[in-house]
């Protein structure tokens, strides 16, 4: 339970939240084939609410803090961005306030990657996983854990309405060191 | 009563009133159960897209025509085994395949779909030898990669064959013997149904009357407004002849000519009673249906290019054949009758599903077939008009006979052999050009194919089918701008045709023209929601927006609509790969290959999957297969080279890249890959030289600078490396590359620091 910044990862405060989900073109949603699980939930508000693309349904935890959302991939993937939809106006004391994101090979060796503190967010909150070093643009991992450490107004349980995880797109041409950007190259680069 | 019912059924069919036809026919069969009546009923069902009904009533029948109809129903219901046994009696391999060319053609299709390529080729060749104007068979041969040169297929031999057929038909007609040649003449082509009437109108206006087969002299005239009386008479004659054979056959009895002739006019029951008088009454009624025939005839002949249904033709032919067997004649050709024509139209609908798929597969339009059909309307018209003499009218000749009809004695239309010759030779000349061009494009010798298409007269060139083929040829040459141009002309020429539109959507995808692509997709969907090409276009649209899941759904819909449309499977495969679902991708690609093993993009797709999965030997094998099919594609060559590189066979890789560069100067990919190979062989200077040239060609390509930066780094020329990395970053590469480049830059500094500290 790494609440304080560890290993040099700093906390950041985030205010607000977008109503629109806008992600760069060269990112794609990575967690469709991943295994999602939560530490606890209230019946009827389970983990499927996090992935159903419906902002009216939410996951409600039902246990002790921290509440965890675990995402396990079948192979090591490069991840860049985590996006959550939370709404203080609707959820008030259920809105998460401190979130920690951990990554690792499994439950046994998760290490914190990022911690953020949300301040009355209403909408999509973007949490980038990149470090400062360009070599750390992506987190290459088997598992991601999103931990809700505390809620607004000291609520015990939390509501999260949607979570999306993004990573870079594959190079359409395998075994190429770099991707093509110009039209001349792209036109000739594949057969369809 | 039987004759009355038959007549009624036929007139209903002619007027496309299938419900009525089926009802009356069922009464007929109940009252006079006989196999020929069953055939008529099956025909009605097939017209009405009820292949299953036809299947059940014809099960176990033995007559040639019944077996043929049964095979058609099985084929439409996808029961290929039964269709095969119906057509090809295994215990008696020397038995005649029912309906000659048509039967062979159908058999060929069956073998093709059950993966027995050699036999399929054999049967298509048979079909062509029996009926040299059977374009569909030639087309299939091209698709299977086994076609001979068009000049030999549509050459002298063919011309003689046609002449012989005509002559024998005449004889046959006169002797009232079922001519098997009729069968030959029948082209078993089924086309997707097209809107015949609209075409008719177009054609009538555009084309010359003379194209109308003699059968329709009346009609022609009516269309063109000419010699009514004469034509009327002739029309009578042909008209008479048309229905009668049909009727005759179906009832299985040779009806007294007089009665039969009278009957055709369903709407004119009075005619039945009077032998002589009907003529006048018939006359009037004839005009209308005649027109239809004419149109069809014209349509067929003239619209060789457009998508016309030859389906109906086939049915007419079938009907005709049935008729022929008992009476003489007139084969299906248009003249025959209303029943034929109606069947024709109906058939086309029916055939639309299966045959459409067949035709569509390679974006080929079957117009040519219809073209054939037109020729076929060789009107073996059995002019049984009240008079006993009937001569078969060898049709096929476009020019002919109208004038001759005029001079014919009542009830006798004869096509002079000279007309046959000239007509046949003209048709063959046209087919030769088209066939050769098509064959070349199937062999992917696209430049030659384009030259061949240019030899066509303007009238033929500016038709939807030819322009689509031209577009396809440019597509294979990777000249997307020309392809776009050709396809847009094709859309102008025939805005309702869907052939080749899937390729057009792919071109727009390559050109990244999302506006045009979405417009095309919308148009296609509104034209025909049930055509696989429309869904392929929509899928391509979504794929361009990187929404691969929706694109996949669209392609799956296309597959559902027509599971024999290979390209839809291939596109599904591409989307699965984009979604990284390699297993399903492989499955989709394999289904595509099962349908069409010469679909080189499928082989390419499989090669790409294996390349990603690092199964390099497999990948090399698949790219090589693709290369063997299409030896002119520089893209395939460069991927084959990449596979060699992955297998560490650098020399071969280089060789292949050189070939690719030669094949298409405008393709930067092999040049880039060549640089890659040189880098891996540590020939940095050469690699740099190559990249410098490439820089000139594509100055905004970030990967070129990035690679150069890497080379400079490895050669320890850090300043230059830095410069190039910076340039690469300026060109906004995607995030992964940014990360790689930035990381490389960071690492660059380390040696500098070391130097500083030293």
From TrEMBL, chain A:
InterPro entries: APC10/Doc1, APC_su10/DOC_dom, Galactose-bd-like_sf
Job of this protein: Component of the anaphase promoting complex/cyclosome (APC/C), a cell cycle-regulated E3 ubiquitin-protein ligase complex that controls progression through mitosis and the G1 phase of the cell cycle.
Record-given protein name: Anaphase-promoting complex subunit 10
A Pfam family per the record: ANAPC10
Signal sequence, start to end: none
Assigned keywords, A-Z: Cell cycle, Cell division, Mitosis, Ubl conjugation pathway
Cellular component aspect of the GO annotation: anaphase-promoting complex
Organism placement in taxonomy: Eukaryota, Viridiplantae, Streptophyta, Embryophyta, Tracheophyta
Family statement: Belongs to the APC10 family.
Gene3D superfamilies: Galactose-binding domain-like (2.60.120.260)
TrEMBL record, chain B:
InterPro entries the record matches: TPR-like_helical_dom_sf (IPR011990), TPR_2 (IPR013105), TPR_rpt (IPR019734)
Keyword tRNA processing: no
Gene Ontology annotations of biological process type: anaphase-promoting complex-dependent catabolic process; cell division; metaphase/anaphase transition of mitotic cell cycle; protein ubiquitination
Ranges where the record places region Disordered: 305-344, 376-396
Bias type Polar residues, positions: 385-394
CC annotations in GO: anaphase-promoting complex; cytoplasm
Alphabetical list of PROSITE patterns matching this protein: TPR
Presence of keyword Transferase: no
Compositionally biased tracts (Low complexity): 324-342
Entry's family note: Belongs to the APC3/CDC27 family.
Protein name per the record: Cell division cycle protein 27 B like
Organism, as annotated: Actinidia chinensis var. chinensis
């Amino acid at each position: 339970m790494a609440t304080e910044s560890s290993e040099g990862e700093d906390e950041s405060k985030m205010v607000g939240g977008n109503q629109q989900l806008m992600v760069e073109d060269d990112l794609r949603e990575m967690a469709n084939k991943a295994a999602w699980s939560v530490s606890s939930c209230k019946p009827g508000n389970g983990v499927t609410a996090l992935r159903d693309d419906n902002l009216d349904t939410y996951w409600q935890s039902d246990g002790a803090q921290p509440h965890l959302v675990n995402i396990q991939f079948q192979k090591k993937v490069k991840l860049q961005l985590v996006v959550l939809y939370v709404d203080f106006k609707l959820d008030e004391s259920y809105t998460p306030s401190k979130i920690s994101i951990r990554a690792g090979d499994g439950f046994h060796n998760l290490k914190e990657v990022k911690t953020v503190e949300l301040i009355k967010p209403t909408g999509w909150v973007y949490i980038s996983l990149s470090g400062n070093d360009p070599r750390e643009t992506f987190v290459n991992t088997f598992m991601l854990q999103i931990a809700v450490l505390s809620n607004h107004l000291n609520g015990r349980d939390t509501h999260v309405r949607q979570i999306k995880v993004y990573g870079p797109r594959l190079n359409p041409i395998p075994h190429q060191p770099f991707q093509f950007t110009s039209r001349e190259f792209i036109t000739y680069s594949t057969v369809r | 009563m039987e004759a009355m019912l038959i007549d009624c059924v036929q007139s209903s069919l002619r007027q496309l009133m299938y419900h009525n036809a089926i009802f009356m026919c069922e009464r007929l069969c109940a009252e006079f159960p006989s196999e020929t009546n069953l055939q008529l009923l099956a025909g009605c069902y097939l017209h009405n897209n009820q292949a299953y009904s036809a299947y059940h009533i014809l099960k176990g029948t033995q007559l040639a025509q019944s077996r043929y109809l049964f095979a058609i129903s099985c084929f439409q219901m996808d029961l290929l085994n039964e269709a095969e046994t119906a057509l090809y009696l295994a215990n008696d391999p020397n038995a005649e395949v029912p309906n000659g060319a048509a039967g062979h053609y159908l058999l060929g299709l069956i073998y093709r779909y059950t993966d027995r390529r050699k036999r399929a080729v054999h049967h298509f060749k048979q079909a062509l030898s029996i009926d040299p104007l059977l374009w569909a068979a030639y087309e299939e041969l091209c698709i299977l990669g086994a076609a001979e040169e068009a000049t030999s297929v549509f050459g002298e031999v063919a011309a003689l064959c046609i002449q012989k057929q005509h002559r024998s038909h005449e004889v046959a007609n006169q002797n009232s013997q079922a001519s098997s040649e009729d069968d030959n003449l029948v082209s078993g082509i089924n086309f997707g149904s097209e809107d015949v009437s609209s075409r008719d109108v177009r054609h009538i206006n555009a084309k010359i009357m003379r194209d109308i087969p003699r059968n329709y002299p009346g009609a022609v005239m009516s269309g063109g407004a000419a010699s009514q009386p004469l034509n009327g008479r002739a029309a009578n004659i042909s008209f008479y002849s048309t229905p009668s054979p049909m009727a005759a056959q179906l009832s299985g009895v040779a009806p007294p000519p007089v009665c039969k002739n009278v009957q055709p006019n369903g709407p004119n029951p009075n005619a039945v009673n009077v032998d002589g008088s009907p003529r006048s009454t018939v006359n009037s009624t004839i005009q209308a249906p005649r027109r239809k025939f004419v149109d069809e005839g014209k349509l067929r002949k003239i619209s060789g290019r457009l998508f016309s249904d030859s389906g109906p033709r086939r049915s007419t032919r079938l009907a005709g054949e049935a008729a022929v067997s008992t009476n003489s004649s007139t084969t299906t050709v248009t003249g025959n009758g209303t029943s034929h024509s109606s069947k024709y139209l109906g058939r086309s609908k029916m055939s639309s599903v299966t045959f459409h798929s067949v035709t569509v597969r390679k974006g080929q339009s079957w117009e040519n077939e219809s073209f054939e059909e037109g020729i076929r309307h060789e009107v073996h018209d059995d002019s049984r008009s009240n008079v006993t003499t009937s001569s078969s009218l060898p049709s096929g000749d476009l020019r002919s006979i109208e004038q001759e009809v005029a001079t014919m004695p009542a009830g006798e239309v004869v096509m002079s052999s000279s007309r046959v010759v000239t007509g046949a030779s003209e048709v063959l000349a046209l087919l030769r050009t088209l066939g050769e061009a098509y064959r070349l494009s199937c062999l992917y010798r696209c430049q030659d194919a384009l030259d061949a298409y240019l030899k066509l007269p303007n009238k033929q060139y500016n038709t939807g089918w030819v322009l689509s083929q031209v577009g396809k040829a440019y597509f294979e040459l990777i000249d997307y701008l020309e392809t776009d141009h050709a396809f847009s002309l094709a859309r102008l020429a025939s805005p309702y045709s869907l052939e080749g539109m899937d390729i057009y959507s792919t071109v727009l995808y390559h050109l990244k023209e999302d506006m045009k692509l979405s417009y095309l997709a919308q148009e296609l969907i509104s034209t025909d929601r049930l055509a696989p090409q429309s869904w392929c276009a929509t899928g391509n649209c979504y794929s361009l927006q990187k929404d691969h899941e929706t694109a996949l759904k669209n392609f799956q819909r296309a597959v559902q609509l027509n599971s024999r449309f290979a390209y839809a499977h291939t596109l599904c495969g591409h989307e699965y790969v984009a979604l990284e679902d390699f297993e399903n991708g492989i499955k989709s690609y394999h289904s595509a290959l099962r349908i069409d093993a010469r679909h080189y993009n499928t082989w390419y797709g499989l090669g790409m999957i294996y390349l990603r999965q690092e199964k390099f030997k497999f990948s090399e094998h698949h790219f090589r297969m693709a290369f063997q099919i299409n030896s002119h594609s520089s893209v395939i060559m460069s991927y084959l080279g990449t596979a060699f590189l992955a297998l560490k066979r650098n020399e071969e890789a280089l060789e292949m890249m050189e070939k690719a560069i030669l094949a298409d100067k405008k393709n930067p990919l092999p040049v880039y890959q060549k640089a890659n190979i040189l880098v891996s062989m540590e020939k940095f200077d050469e690699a740099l030289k190559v990249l410098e040239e490439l820089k000139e060609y594509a100055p905004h390509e970030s990967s070129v600078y990035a690679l150069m930066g890497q080379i400079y780094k490895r050669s320890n020329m850090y300043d230059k490396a830095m410069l190039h990395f910076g340039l690469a970053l300026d060109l906004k590469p995607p995030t992964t590359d940014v990360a790689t480049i930035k990381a490389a830059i960071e690492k660059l500094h380390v040696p500098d620091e070391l130097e500083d500290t030293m």
